[in-house]
UniProtKB/TrEMBL annotation, chain A:
It comes from Gracilibacillus orientalis. Transmembrane segments: none annotated. This is ABC-type nitrate/sulfonate/bicarbonate transport system, ATPase component. SUPFAM superfamilies: P-loop containing nucleoside triphosphate hydrolases (SSF52540). Residues 4-228 form the ABC transporter domain.
TrEMBL record, chain B:
InterPro entries: MetI-like (IPR000515), MetI-like_sf (IPR035906). This is ABC-type nitrate/sulfonate/bicarbonate transport system, permease component. It is a multi-pass membrane protein. PROSITE patterns: ABC_TM1. Pfam families: BPD_transp_1. It comes from Gracilibacillus orientalis. Residues 54-234 form the ABC transmembrane type-1 domain.
Length: 247, 251
C-alpha cells in the first residue's frame, strides 16, 4: 500500500524559482502522469521525492511518513536505462534488492518470465536493443523493495514504433501488479493511454494548473488511442498545454 | 588472430635471415655479433647451465609483481576514497616516476643490502604506478548517470563503491596491469644486476664480462619470452573477467 503526497513544495535554485507551492497526490494503486513542457521542473520533482534535493518548504509524505531528504524511499526508473554493463539481465534486476537484503533470484526469474524477458536472463545489456533495456530497467524497479514507482520519461529515447510497443507492454505488466506510479512525460497520447489521472504542469515556477481524470476502462488496448473520446481528451489537454506555452 | 600474426612473424623471419647471412658474409666475430643459429645452439646446449637462473628470476618477478599490484590497488583505493589525500599525494606519485630506477637502485642496496628486499622494492616501484594511475582514473570516471541512479535507489557510499565504482574501473585496471607486467620483468633483471647470486640478470652480467655475447643474446631472448608470457597471462585473465565488455567482441 503506498500513497504519495506532496504538500506545498517550494524549491529555488539561487534566484530562480523552480517549484512554487506545488501540491500533488498519488493514491494507492493509481497511475498518475505529470505532463509538462521540457524544463518545467519535472526532474526536480523526482529529485525531491528521491531525497537528492531538499525542498525549501513543504512536506513530502509516503504513507504518512515524512521523507523529505530521505534517499531510497521510492523505486526510480530514469530516462536512460542505467543498467550495469558487467551484470547480466538477471543480476541487474536484483540490484536494488541487493542494497537492502539478500535477493530472491527465483522471484526475479518469475518476474522476468512474466515480462517476456526469460530468454535474456543471462544476456548482458549491450546485447539488447534499446526497448529491451528499458524493459529490464522497468522490471528492476518493479522488483525493488520500495513499492512506490517513479518513472522519468522512460520511453523518450525510443522511436515511435518501439514506444507504442513499450506502452502496451508496460500497461500489461502494471495491470497485473498495480503498484502506485508517478509517471513523467511530455507526450500527451502516452499520458492518456497509460494513466488514471493526468496533472498538467505549468512552467517556471511549476505548479499543477489542471487535472484530468482519465476514466477509460482497463485493460486498455491500442484501439483506444483512435477512439473519439480519446481524441477529445487529447484535444482538451493540448489546449491546456498551449495555454501554458503561450503565457 | 592467426591472420594478424602472419605479417609480424614474416617480418621477424626476414630480419633473422638477413642477420644470419650478413654475419656469415662479413665474417663478423661471434663475440661482436653472434649469428641467430649460434645463439639458438647456445640456448639449447647451455640449458642445464642457466635454467636455475630463469627459475629464480621468474620467482622474483611473480612475487614482485604481486606486491606491486597490491600496493598499486591499495594506493588507488585510498586516494579515491580520500580526495584530500589524493590532492596532496598525486603530484608526488607522478614525481616518483621521474627518478630513473637505475639511479635509485644503488641507494636501495646501501639501505637494504644484497638480499631479496631491495629487489622486490625495485619491482614494486616500477609496477605500482601504472596500476595506481589507471585504477584512479577508472574510479573517477564512473558514469555519473549510474551514480545518480544508485543514489536515488538509496545506496550507501560503501555500496556505491563496491557495487558500482570498483567494477566500473576494472577495464582500466587491466590496461595498467598489462604495462606493469612487462615492467616487472625489466625491474627484476635490473635488480639482479645490482648484486645477486642467480637470475637472468646475473647470467647476463657474467656473460658480458667474459665476452660470451651469444649468452647475452640468450638472456635477451628469455627476457622477451618472459615478457610475452606475462603479457599473455594478463590478456587471458582480461578476456575471462571482462567477458561482458562490449568492445571485446569486435576485436
Amino acid at each position: 500500500m503506498s500513497t504519495l503526497v506532496l504538500e506545498n513544495i517550494t524549491k529555488r535554485f539561487g534566484e530562480q524559482m523552480i517549484l512554487d507551492k506545488l501540491d500533488l497526490q498519488v493514491n494507492d494503486g493509481e497511475f498518475v502522469s505529470l505532463l509538462g513542457p521540457s524544463g518545467s521542473g519535472k526532474s526536480t520533482i523526482f529529485h525531491l521525492i528521491g531525497g537528492l534535493y531538499q525542498a525549501d518548504q513543504g512536506m513530502i509524505r509516503l504513507d504518512n511518513e515524512t521523507i523529505n531528504g530521505k534517499k531510497g524511499s521510492i523505486s526510480y526508473m530514469p530516462q536512460t536505462p542505467s543498467l550495469f554493463p558487467w551484470r547480466t539481465v538477471l543480476e541487474n534486476v536484483i540490484l536494488n534488492v541487493e542494497l537492502y537484503q539478500k535477493p530472491d533470484k527465483q522471484k526475479a526469474l518469475e518476474m522476468l518470465e512474466r515480462a517476456g524477458l526469460k530468454d535474456y536472463a543471462n544476456a548482458y545489456p549491450h546485447e539488447l536493443s534499446g526497448g529491451m533495456r528499458q524493459r529490464v530497467a522497468f522490471v528492476r524497479s518493479l522488483l525493488s523493495p520500495q513499492s512506490f514507482i517513479c518513472l522519468d520519461e522512460p520511453f523518450s529515447s525510443l522511436d515511435e514504433f518501439t514506444r507504442l510497443e513499450m506502452q502496451k507492454w508496460l500497461l500489461s505488466i502494471w495491470e497485473q501488479e498495480r503498484p502506485s506510479v508517478l509517471f513523467v512525460t511530455h507526450n500527451i497520447e502516452e499520458a492518456i493511454f497509460l494513466s488514471d489521472r493526468i496533472l498538467v504542469l505549468g512552467s517556471k515556477p511549476a505548479n499543477v494548473i489542471k487535472e484530468f481524470s482519465i476514466d477509460f476502462e482497463r485493460p486498455r488496448n491500442e484501439k483506444l488511442t483512435l477512439s473519439t473520446a480519446f481524441l477529445e481528451t487529447k484535444k482538451e489537454i493540448y489546449q491546456t498545454l498551449r495555454g501554458v506555452l503561450d503565457v | 588472430m592467426f591472420r594478424k600474426s602472419i605479417l609480424p612473424i614474416s617480418v621477424m623471419i626476414i630480419i633473422l635471415i638477413i642477420w644470419e647471412v650478413s654475419t656469415r658474409f662479413f665474417d663478423i666475430p661471434t663475440w661482436v655479433l653472434p649469428a641467430p643459429t649460434v645463439i639458438i645452439q647456445e640456448a639449447i646446449s647451455g640449458w642445464d647451465n642457466y635454467q636455475h637462473h630463469i627459475l629464480s628470476t621468474v620467482t622474483l618477478i611473480v612475487s614482485g609483481f604481486a606486491i606491486g599490484i597490491s600496493v598499486g590497488l591499495i594506493i588507488a583505493i585510498v586516494l579515491h576514497i580520500l580526495p584530500k589525500i589524493r590532492e596532496a599525494l598525486y603530484p608526488l606519485l607522478i614525481m616518483s616516476q621521474n627518478i630513473p630506477i637505475i639511479v635509485l637502485a644503488p641507494l636501495l642496496v646501501i639501505w637494504f643490502g644484497f638480499g631479496v628486499t631491495p629487489k622486490l622494492l625495485i619491482i614494486t616501484l616500477v609496477c605500482f604506478f601504472p596500476i595506481a594511475v589507471s585504477t584512479i582514473d577508472g574510479l573517477r570516471h564512473t558514469n555519473p548517470e549510474l551514480i545518480h541512479y544508485m543514489k536515488m535507489a538509496g545506496a550507501s557510499k560503501r555500496q556505491i563503491f563496491t557495487k558500482l565504482e570498483l567494477p566500473y574501473a576494472v577495464p582500466q585496471m587491466f590496461s595498467g596491469l598489462k604495462i606493469s607486467a612487462t615492467y616487472s620483468v625489466m625491474g627484476a633483471v635490473i635488480s639482479e644486476w645490482l648484486g645477486a647470486n642467480q637470475g637472468i640478470g646475473v647470467y647476463m652480467t657474467l656473460a658480458s664480462s667474459s665476452f660470451r655475447t651469444d649468452r647475452v643474446f640468450v638472456a635477451i631472448l628469455f627476457i622477451m619470452i618472459l615478457c610475452l608470457i606475462f603479457f599473455a597471462i594478463i590478456i587471458a585473465a582480461e578476456k575471462i573477467i571482462l567477458k561482458w565488455h562490449p568492445s571485446k567482441e569486435d576485436q
